[in-house]
Amino acid sequence: MIGTEENPLRVAIVGSGPAGFYTADHILKHEGTHAEVDMFDRLPTPYGLVRFGVAPDHPKIKSVIRVYEKTAARPEFRFFGNVEVGMDVTAEELRDRYHAIVFAYGTSVDRHLGIPGEDLPGSHSATEFVNWYNAHPDFADREFDLSCERVVVIGNGNVAADVARMLALPREELEGTDTADHAIEALAACGVKEILVLGRRGPAQAAFTNPEVRELGEMVDADIDVDPGEMDLDELSRAWLDSDDADPTNRRNVDIFTEFSQREPEGKNKRIVMRFLRSPVEIQGDGRVERIVVAKNELQRDDSGRLRAVDTGERETIDCGLVLRSIGYKGIPIDGIPFDERRGLIHNDGGRVHDGEGEQVPGLYAVGWIKRGPSGVIGTNKKDAHETVAKLFADLESGKVPEAPLADDRGAIEALLSERKPDHVTFEGWQAIDAAEVEAGKPHGRPRIKFCRVHELVEASKATKTAA
Ligand code: FAD
Questions:
Q1: Rounded mean pLDDT of 256-270?
Q2: Which of 276, 295, 327 is the last residue of a domain?
Q3: Which pTM does this prediction carry?
């Protein structure tokens, strides 16, 4: 029987972001089952978007890591960083060594606008920019031309708000954060005067949460600019806000935007301009971004009752030197795992992986953004992990979790990794990296100074081994 002291349930979790950690926690706390969890991440560092997504000026949000550290401290938990599943080890090799695999590898690729000029130099996805300022090793060498006066940010979600704020922070504020050193220099010296944030639909439908909107009006070095004319809401938006379909968040956003629209500029160095009912239709320039053409939209109700942005045919051309597109993410497939290309997610039903036709693939599960798509805050993944883990234990109970030929040998994965990826990073290795980063930050009054290259991270991970 799987899940006993003699034959513990052995689970591999692919990805060490919030979804992966909540899953590990739920599995290891499940009463009456002996379980062991091995977590893999393609990067030497754990925590996914908590390290590489959450904005550096929001350090409190990152304190959720304390919860994950408690999970990692359990003797039944192991971390194998710097191991990419699908590249360094295959999903099939994991299936031989674990009774169950939970895919928690997030949605790392940006969706495209599909408009002419999108690939011109100077047009980037917000992900590239976010990863760059957060010291993601894959993006350390990216360069962004911040000498232009106007940057256009496309999108009305919290990532767009993060990006707008980061472009508006003065050096003193950046220097108190764990922003990558290369980004602090570039951002502090940047010539940007205006950050123009464009939303496809109206202020009532913007996806920002309230604190993120409020913060845009509290910047030390940037005025906020909302056109009062745009706060004169169309009838459909008004009716929708009064209906039960609207969220309190939407209503409060409208109140905050309205207050912004009544402000007089204070003459700060920069300004964040919010414009609604605008969709980009072309990015233009001679060899690089020089301007963007946007369509003016109006809202119409579609057959399902949803308010959609519809192009009115009116056009506006706006000069700019940089475009950052923040319109959503999708996942990428791992060889051999059923994948829904259209949605960019693993085929699954409440976390149980199926073959795309509804037939369950025994022993495979999904959680977090690769399961349900890129929405929700960190805490959303806790509930989501609960659902997936409940499915896993229900399957265990009904005998649907398959035996695996090498699952009785806890050392089998280490034997494989010593061949394939001898420089993999354990949790102890991560703690050495963490200590070195924090130490490096101390003399500068910073929470940490992040290493931004894989070889530096791997080197730092070896400190404990050398000391021991
Ligand atoms: P992720 O956090 O993306 O973790 C996936 C992990 O899988 C990564 O560590 C990745 O390296 C690893 N991985 C990928 N491929 C492989 C592979 N083949 N093999 C092994 N490992 C792999 N939420 C908040 O509550 N507050 C915020 O302030 C906030 N800010 C955000 C800012 C940005 C820019 C973004 C994009 C999101 C933000 N969120 C925020 C949302 C939050 O980060 C997500 O809800 C959460 O991170 C999703 O968790 P996840 O575990 O599914 O994915």
A1: 97
A2: 327
A3: 0.96
Q: Are 367 and 382 in contact (CB under 8 A)?
A: no
pLDDT at 464: 66
Domain end (from 327, 356, 385)? 327
From ligand 1's centre to the CA of 104, what distance in Å? Answer: 9
CB 19 within 8 A of CB 385: yes
124 and 20, same structural domain? Answer: no
Cα(48) to centroid(ligand 1), Å: 5
Atom 33, ligand 1: which residue's CA is nearest?
53
Residue 468: per-residue pLDDT: 43
- Per-residue pLDDT of 330-371, as tens digits, reads 999 999 999 999 999 999 999 999 999 999 999 999 999 999
Residues 131 and 186 occupy one common structural domain: yes
Is 1 among the domain residues? no
Contact 6, 52 (CB under 8 A): no
Residue 330 pairs with which residues in a beta bridge? 109
Task: Report the alpha-carbon distance of residue 46 to residue 463 in Å, rounded.
Answer: 17
From the CA of 347, how far away is ligand 1's center (Å)?
19
Are 99 and 118 within one domain?
A: no
Q: Which residues line the pocket of ligand 1, CB cutoff 6 A?
A: 14-20, 40-43, 48-49, 53-54, 58, 61, 84-86, 104-106, 108, 130, 159, 162, 334, 368-369, 376-378, 380-381
Best of 43, 332, 378 for a ligand 1 pocket test (most atoms within 8 Å of beta carbon): 378
Domain match, 339 and 319 both? no
Sequence-separated (6 or more) residues with CB below 8 Å from residue 152: 196, 198, 280, 292, 318, 320, 322, 323, 324
If one residue of 71, 80, 105 were mutated to test the ligand 1 pocket, choosing by the most ligand atoms within 8 A of its CB, it would be: 105
Smallest CA separation from ligand 1 atom 21, residue: 41
Ligand 1 midpoint to CA 306 (Å): 29
* pLDDT surpassing 60 at residue 185: yes
User: Angle CA(271)–CA(129)–CA(424) in degrees, nearest 5?
Assistant: 150
Contacts of 217 (CB under 8 A, 6+ apart): 224, 256, 259, 260, 263
CA of 312 to the centre of ligand 1 (A): 37
Count of domains for the chain: 2
Supply the range of the domain harboring residue 128: 112-327
